[in-house]
Amino acid sequence: QVQLVESGGGLVQAGGSLRLSCAASGRIFSDYAMGWFRQAPGKEREFVGRITWSGGSTYYADSVKGRFTISRDNAKNTVFLQMNRLKPTDTGVYYCAAGPYGTGYPYWGQGTQVTVSS
Question: What pLDDT shows up at residue 1?
Answer without folding.
Answer: 87
